[in-house]
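Researcher: Here's the sequence for the chain we discussed earlier.
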Amino acid sequence: MSLKPPPPNLLRIALQDTIGAFAGVIAVGMLITAVPLFLLSSTENRDTGFWVMMAAVAGIFLLCLVVLIWRLPRRRRYIHEKWQRSLLRRATVVAIKVEGAGREQRRYLHFEYEYQGKTYTNIEYINRFWKIEEGASVDILIDPEDPGRALLLEVFQ
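Model: Thanks. This is the structure I predict for it:
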């Protein structure tokens, strides 16, 4: 059995958190659009409509920032606490289910593992580009306090 790797960094955790990733993408998008629009518009064209639009963009940006500030430290603390008390084990891939098609395709990895004589099954969303087959072994972290929920290491590396 190999050694447990160090816990993931904040960026890796954010990318695995749907809400955090969405808020980050929207915030960056708002900055990329609003700053050039503000800098490139002439002072004469900055009427009431312009300022209403800029206020809306600023509001959305601030909302996304609040979500990120609220969500990411909590998620990071949760992952790190779980990471510290967890045990490194191997699980077997029992199925890979695919839902949707094209860009809307979602892949779910069903894996099974044993802990203290009891067999557990978990489902984890995986990237559509990750190549893995049924019957393969994967590294997981099992939390002794909650052995029914395991972290798939590949998701955070």
